[in-house]
Structure formats: structure tokens, C-alpha cells
UniProtKB/TrEMBL annotation:
<keyword id="KW-0597">Phosphoprotein</keyword>
<feature type="binding site">
    <location>
        <position position="510"/>
    </location>
    <ligand>
        <name>Zn(2+)</name>
    </ligand>
</feature>
<dbReference type="GO" id="GO:0004035">
    <property type="term" value="F:alkaline phosphatase activity"/>
</dbReference>
<dbReference type="GO" id="GO:0008081">
    <property type="term" value="F:phosphoric diester hydrolase activity"/>
</dbReference>
<feature type="binding site">
    <location>
        <position position="505"/>
    </location>
    <ligand>
        <name>Mg(2+)</name>
    </ligand>
</feature>
<feature type="binding site">
    <location>
        <position position="553"/>
    </location>
    <ligand>
        <name>Zn(2+)</name>
    </ligand>
</feature>
<feature type="binding site">
    <location>
        <position position="390"/>
    </location>
    <ligand>
        <name>Mg(2+)</name>
    </ligand>
</feature>
<keyword id="KW-0479">Metal-binding</keyword>
<keyword id="KW-0862">Zinc</keyword>
<dbReference type="InterPro" id="IPR001952">
    <property type="entry name" value="Alkaline_phosphatase"/>
</dbReference>
<protein>
    <submittedName>
        <fullName>Alkaline phosphatase</fullName>
    </submittedName>
</protein>
<feature type="binding site">
    <location>
        <position position="388"/>
    </location>
    <ligand>
        <name>Mg(2+)</name>
    </ligand>
</feature>
<dbReference type="InterPro" id="IPR017946">
    <property type="entry name" value="PLC-like_Pdiesterase_TIM-brl"/>
</dbReference>
<dbReference type="Pfam" id="PF00245">
    <property type="entry name" value="Alk_phosphatase"/>
</dbReference>
<feature type="binding site">
    <location>
        <position position="514"/>
    </location>
    <ligand>
        <name>Zn(2+)</name>
    </ligand>
</feature>
<dbReference type="InterPro" id="IPR039559">
    <property type="entry name" value="AIM6_PI-PLC-like_dom"/>
</dbReference>
<comment type="similarity">
    <text>Belongs to the alkaline phosphatase family.</text>
</comment>
Amino acid sequence: MKNKLLLTLLITCLVKVGSFAQTLNGNRGHSHNDYNQQIPFLQAYYAGMGSIEADVFLFNGKLYVAHNREDISEERTLDNLYLKPLAALFKKSGNRPYADTSLRLQLVIDIKEDHEHVIPELIKEINPYMQVFNDPSNKRAVKLVLSGDMPAPAKFDNYPSYIYFDGRPEITYSADELKHVGMISNELSLYTKWNGKGTPTPPDMEKLQRIVNAAHAVHKSFRFWATQDSPNTWIELEKIGVDWINTDHPQQLHDFFINRAKLEYTNPAPYQVYKPTYKSDGANKKVKNVILLIGDGMGLAQIQAGLTANRGQLNIYQCHNIGFSQTRASNSDNTDSAAGATAMACGEKTNNRYIGEDTQGKPLVNLPDKLATDGIKTGIISCGDITDATPAAYYAHNIDRESSQEIAAGLLTSHVDVLIGSNQKSFFNNADKNLISDLKTKHYQLYTSLADLKTATSKDKQLVLLKDSDTRPVMNGRGDMLKESLLQTMRILSANKQGFFIMAEGAQIDYGGHANNLPYIVTELHDFDKTVAEALKFADEDGETLVIITADHETGGLSLLDVSTEKGMVSGSFSTNDHTSINVPVFAYGPHAQDFNGTYQNTEIFHKILALMSAKK
């Protein structure tokens, strides 16, 4: 008795929903209507598609690729556009579709009409290339699948064994007929109103998965066609369990999958957040100390990614007072770190790339120098290059952020008391051969490790020049350098009766944004957030410390496509490898935290801090 697919459908209704979900790759792309590509076949082939589709018509004894009969043109034959180039590449790759042995290929011929005459002509036209399609000894031969106008399943056996057919879920196939079915597919809209945006409803999701599971139960791959072509749709189709992702944009699909390791992150070890006391939060009392924590490149999407990956908890989100900073530079709405940091360090807008100087290239007085007149000491920390734009704006003045050696020399005229970060060469190999000795004359104690700093006191100034390897990414083993730097700096400067100002930068959130690398961003943001916890703890214990957490700009145009707070998983996409003009949040905790609510220019952060610290006199 014939095995019926209908029985399989009923059985798979009992299968747990989602049990066939799988992780796909670029070779699972199906280049739909491939002949419409600017370069048919080759564009999809070099994008690594595992399935390439060509619609065909029989005209004057030849097969032509076209969507409609009136689109037929003389040079666009199946042989010219598909069979010849495929055979040549097959031979070049060592008698396999791709040089990469893990990649497979099927050629899907969509017969628009008259299969009775088209199939015999197809067999005739592929005869010169039989080693590509019909080689029983070669498991990597190209699979030939016919779709569209097809013979009845009972007639499948009338055709050569190397010809497969595109099955349909609603057809009941016998066991013999299933041998000729190459895959099973159908139009998505026949089963759901889901249009590819968001997620299908739970009942629709279950229905779609049952259809796919039924195909898998008879060992057939599955494809939905007429699907929206977007990363969100591709992700949802993968969850449903489909084997072939239908696309009209093979290169975009390839890029999505090839970069997937950089676009997804699951946090293996969530951490506990600090629970503040809020005793002095929002209090209308003097502000003795300010800790400004700058997550370079940290926008709301980056924070949300960190929140989700840590199972819905962040130290940053313990703050009740939140505002927004407008980040534009003088010469561009998209600021860079130099202009963005200068605005917060000096209280004035400037041009991109300018460090501590106005739009005319004249030095501005930065916050450490202004606060020094009141006896307030300053610490500047970065988990990256200490001569880079954000920390540099607090102690240097230069028209070009790339002038690393000149920026390093700017410390000589600065009132910064503690400086911690990497880039030893800009100090030790500076064109000014006397720089190190002159810094020592300015009472700077030089260290090359954080361990040495543990014995330092506020008697002298501290310059900690770390090896570049000490500020490698968290993913590569940096450890808690940023948190430890803040703890040591707070310990040293808290001995000053007039108070302190500390700026600590989570520099590499920005690096991850420029690299369009979501795991890089999230791991750096978590490191930054753990540093935030130490600042909040100090503020609670001290009672006169204001903590401000913000960014200089957003980097990467990050959007989150798929997330799971329960699993600590985030998946995203980037619109740029550069900065954007999106407003960035400002979180505040401690006395006068409410002063940072609302929306304002980034220069106001400088003026608010200065006013609060000066008001204690």
C-alpha cells in the first residue's frame, strides 16, 4: 500500500513546535527569478547561493529564460546564461559546484508552460553537460529540480532519475513518487497573513512549522516563496525551520549570513547589578565630586542590546533621572569623538577632528583647568588609547585628533592629576625627547601597570601608561582594567578635601560600532556597565557625588532585529560603519541628578557640571 504524505502530516502535528528549527547559512539561499539579476547566474553563484532558479519558455526549438513569453530575447537562452557557465565553473572547481567542498548547488528550472515539450528539450540541451548533472559516482553533482508546470506525480517515473520535481505540501505522494521530489515548496500567503514584518501569530507560527516539519519527516527540504526580502524575514523563516531562504537579493543574503557571527551574541554568564540606596539621589545639596562616564559610540540601541544580553538588567538603568544630549558638531550634524568630547570638556561646539579648540583653532579652557582654580582634582581614564579624541579633549589642544604626539605633550600644561590609558609610544617615543622628564618635573609619577598604582597617593600626580595589550578588547581577555582604574582613581582623589572630577571612557563600544560587530559592542558595554556599578556604590557611600553616564555620539546605526531577554540573545544589523546624528541618553544619579533631565545640547553637560561644582563654595 502506498505511503501517504497525509499520514505524515497528521503525525507531525504531534511534534513539538520548533523542533526542526535550524541554523542556516548563505548556501541555503534560493536566488528567485535569477534571470532578472543584472548578471544572471554568476551574481548568485559568486554569492554562494545553493539554489538558483530560472524560468523557461520553449520557443523555436530552444529554451529561453524569461518571466513572460513577450520578454524572450535571442541571446537569453538557458544554455548561454546558465548551462555553459555552470559547466565551466563546475570543471574549474574540480568537478563540483564550488571549490569549497561544503557548498552544494541545485538548478531549479521553472517551466512556465507546456512541460510535455519543454522537458524533452531540456534533456536534449543538458546532454553535453551530463557530467554536471548525471554522475552517480559524484555526490557533489548539481541537482536539477523542475518546478512550475510539471507532470502529474504518477508520471514522475517516466523521466530520467537525475530529474527531480518541486513538490507541494497539499499533494499526497506515494513512496515511489517521493523519490523524484527534490524539495517541497509553496507560497507563504496561502497559510498566513504575516507579511515578513515582526513575527507570525502563535497559531500561524505553529501552522507554518507543521507544514515544514511534514516535509522534513519525509526527508525533503522546504521553501516558501513570495516572502518579503529582509533580514527580519530571513530570521523568522529560519525559526520556522525552512531550508531555503527565497531571495531576489543574493548578495545581501550572502552578506547577512557571512557576517552573522558579528551580528549575533548570546551572553553565557549574566551578572548581578548593583541596587542603589537612592538616599542622595535628586537631593538639593552640594556636589563635591562628579564622575562622568562616557560610553563612546553608545546609543540607545547599544544599551538595549546590553540590557537584553544581561537578561533585562543593567546598572545604567538603575538611574531614575534621564535626559537626552544633542551631539551635532559645528561643521556637521554627525559629530566625531573630538568635537563631541570637546563640547562636554570645554562647553563649546567645534569642528570635527578639533581637540579642545574652537572653530577658529584657538585653545579653549577645559573642565579640569577650570575646576583646578577651586582646588578640585581631576582624573581621566580610558580603556583605549589615552591620546585618542575623547580623553584628549580634557587635557590637550590641537586642530587634528590624529596628532597623537602633540596631544601627549599637551599634558604638560594640563591640570589633570591622574591619567590612565594605553599608547606608550606617543609618550616614550615622542619627538619632544624631554617629554617624560618634563612630566616628572611637573610631579607626575610614571607607572606602566595598574598594579603599581595601588600604592600611589594624592601627594603626586599619576601617569599610568599601559601596554597596548592591556587595553585589548574584553573578548580577547582585557579583564576589569576600566573598573580597576576607576576604583584606584576614586581612592586617590577622594583624599582631596575640595573634591574631584573623573571622566572614565568606555572607548571600545565605539570600536565595536565601527567594526559592525555586535558581540564586541555588548561585551564592551557590559564592561562599562560594571564600571558604572562602582561609581554608583561610591556615590551612595559618599553622599556628595554626582554620577553622569552618557555618550559622545552613536556609532554604527545599530538596529536590533531579534532578541530574547530570557536567553540573553541579541541579533542586529548596522546601517553604517561611522557615527550617526542620533541623540544619546544622559543618565544621572546623586545630588542634583534631576538637573540632567530633558533635552539639551551636549555643551550643557559642561555648564551643568561647572555650575554644580562651583556652587559648593
